[in-house]
Amino acid sequence: MLGSTSMMLHHTSGISRKQPSFPPLMGYSAVALNHVIDFKEKKQEIIKPVPPSELFPSLPIVQGTSKRIKVLTRLTLVVSDPSHCNLLRSTSANIRLYDIIAVFPKTEKLFHIACTTLDVDLVCINVTEKLPFYFRRPPVNMAIDRGIYFELLYTPAIKDSTMRRYTISNAISLMQICKGKNIVISSAAERPLELRGPYDVANLGLLFGLSEGEAKAAVSTNCRATMLHGETRKSACGVVYTVKKPRKVEEEETAVPACKKAKTQA
Amino acid sequence: MHTQPLRGRCPIRAEVAQSPQGPRAPSGHRRWTGHRRQRPPRPRRRHSGSGCAAGAGGRDLTARPLPGPPRRVWQLPVGGGGGRGGGGGGGVRRAGSGMQPAQLGRAPRHLLVCERGHARHPRSRHAAHVRDHAYSCRVSFLIPECGLLPEVLKSTIADIGDYYLVRSLPIHELVAHEFIDAFVKKGSCYALTYKTKIDQDNTAALLPNGKLILSVDKDTYEELGLQGRPSRYSGKKVMRYIITIDLTDAGFHPESKKHNRVLWALKEKKPLEFDFLMAWYNTGAEGSTLMSYFSKHQIQALRPKITFSTLRDLPCPVLQSNDLQGKPEESCSTEELFEWLGAVLNQVSLDNKSSSFLSTYCCPEPNTVVEKAFLCTITGFIIPEKIIQLLEQLCCYFGEPKLAYWLTLTVHGFADSPVSWRESEHGFHKGGENLYNFVIFRNLDYWLQMAVGAHDDCPP
């Protein structure tokens, strides 16, 4: 499945049933629902993600094809202190249930740590305010080598003209360092009106300094790569998957002790 | 004018001389054999911005007139003249001087090839061009100064024939020898997957010459196990592969290794199933029809949708059949006609009213206002043989004296088909247009304009 992917829809507790109908109507074939954890606030626990099958009983079909839309879960950690990263290093059970993990670094040191050592799929770039630090080549190149993607949002640009300026200037400064590789453009839409179609978002990538091919990849190929990167976290080095096999329930009357079972099978 | 006409060797063709499909049989270029000569190496000018599909950086844009009247003109967008590409993005304004403004103002690459000839000339290639373009989803013709359609044309349109939609058909049924013997070898069989996007999903198409083309994404290709080649429009990280299976090949008989491998891959290794649009043109041989062959699957026969409309007070450009470029005060050029025709077919109003926010487009000068014009649109899965019959009837329209100086026939191809002309690969970048347009004059001269979008090879 390689379709246009919208990487972020903010998950609000009162999500309405109508909302999942908009991304497939625009042509997106995969959507990620985002949960944001901000460590500045009081101690927050990472909650288990609500599986998409519970939220939407029947997934709608993508417009123009005959396949159903794929819904993923995603976690964004807003980190402003190195101690916040400990959560990722610990093998918390709840974190592993998310398909994609993203980190939003607020300082240069944390950006460096996120690009070089943290086990994440996406590094979010701040688009709502002037960047407090400049991007430098070494951590960005390391992130590209590790297969980590940088994420830009476009919904703040729709809402406000000041944020539009910051979005474009931050994006251009990122492009000058990374040369358009490993970019994912996503929305942080909370309402259906803030969504835009995949080809429109690819056009927006042109404003950020991406070439035509890179801009289209930012909405399709790179998102698929991010999803695969997240899947490999559940496997051993991306090569071996384990799947729980359903145990057959044995009846009480015909329970045979294990030693005798082995003899009869042999 | 933002496009630069180029007379000479087709630059795109020059770059793709080593096309992966192998050496091409000489085609329309045999007309140029008298003009080819050894040229001294010219300094290649670097063409900035989005290059052509072959990805080559340098394209020779020096216009050099050939001896004799030029018959073909290629239009390449050279720069400036934006419009199509940068429209979206939620109203975000262009960035400041930190960006490269040339890149923003450039529309995605598109090509328009214009050719002229005479319909009754023995070596005229109009029928060949129509036959090369296999899948058409919309045919429209516009006849100025015509209020009522002649009976002959009405019966030709009614004779267009049905096409079939087969749901959930596994692809190995198309490789079965009963199907090949019944349909592919007798007459021309056309099949195209329905509701699959060429840049996202797997797509399949069956050409009338017996080739089955599968355009699959990376995961499917790696699981399928058939040999293919990477798509030309895929970039450095290949995401799309094209597999071509020749069903009429002598080595593809029922017991051959090739056939067994293909059948195993499509039936057991990775069974692929699609909804197909199918049509069959049989050359008189009686046998089973598609409806009876696929009766076990959900097949329904569909009729193309036909709409007629009469346009009143339409400004039409004045054209001279022997002048593709047009003269400033006497006639319009082919590009101007192409744009005007696009506006008319999309029902864009041409009067440039000050209250209209949608369009400021006007009919190109010189033009005449025509009292009425007849526009007919046929939408469906239309095969080239029927289009050739329609083209013949439109040529016969000028058999009797008529007021109109010219009429047009426009054929749009499917945006999501894996091939455009012959077997050249078609991709969808931001618009998957591949269309051609005939302009037929009173003296049976014709202009043929073929247009393709970004991820497409130059039309033949």
Written description of the protein model:
- Chain A is α/β, with parallel strands linked by helices and about 270 residues long.
- Chain A has one domain: Metal-dependent hydrolases (TIM Barrel, Alpha-Beta Barrel), CATH 3.20.20.
- Helix content of chain A is about 35%, strand content about 15%.
- Chain A is built from eleven helices and seven strands.
- A seven-stranded parallel beta sheet of chain A has the order 1-2-3-4-5-6-7.
- In chain A, helix 2 links the parallel strand 2 and strand 3.
- In chain A, helix 4 packs parallel to helix 5 and helix 8 packs across helix 9.
- The longest helix of chain A is centred in the middle third of the chain and has 18 residues.
- By secondary structure, chain B is of the alpha+beta class.
- Chain B has two domains: about 200 residues, no CATH class; about 140 residues, no CATH class.
- In chain B, strands 1-2-3-17-16-15-4-14-13 form a nine-stranded antiparallel beta sheet, sandwiched between helices. Chain B has an eight-stranded antiparallel beta sheet with strand order 9-10-8-7-6-11-5-12.
- In chain B, strand 7 and strand 8 form a beta hairpin.
- Chain B is globular, with a radius of gyration of 23 Å.
- About 15% of the residues of chain B have low confidence.
- Classes of the chains: A alpha/beta (about 270), B alpha+beta (about 450).
- Chains A and B meet through helix 7, helix 8 and helix 9 of A and loops of B.
- Order of SSEs of chain B: EHEHEHEHEHHEEEHEEHEHEEHEHEEE
Radius of gyration of chain B: 23 Å
Low-confidence stretches of chain A: 11-18
**Assembly state of the chains shown:** heterodimer
Main sheet: strands, sense, barrel of chain A? 7 strands, parallel
How many structural domains are formed by the residues of chain A?
A: 1
CATH class of chain A reads: Alpha Beta
Q: State the domain count of chain B.
A: 2
- Assign the structural class of chain A, choosing from mainly alpha, mainly beta, alpha/beta, alpha+beta, or little secondary structure: alpha/beta
Q: Using CB atoms under 8 Å apart, which protein chain pair has the greatest interface?
A: A-B, 33 and 33 residues
Q: Beta-sheet strand percentage of chain B?
A: 25-35%
Average pLDDT over all residues of chain A: 80
The CATH homologous superfamily of chain A corresponds to Metal-dependent hydrolases
Shape of chain B: globular
Q: Give the overall shape of chain A, derived from the CA principal axes.
A: globular
With strands numbered from the N-terminus, the spatial order across the biggest sheet of chain A is: 1-2-3-4-5-6-7
Number of strands of chain B: 17
Q: Can you give the helix content of chain B as a percent range?
A: 10-25%
InterPro entries (chain B): RNase_P_Rpp40
GO molecular function (chain B): ribonuclease MRP activity; ribonuclease P activity; ribonuclease P RNA binding
Organism (chain B): Taeniopygia guttata (Zebra finch)
GO cellular component, one term (chain B): multimeric ribonuclease P complex
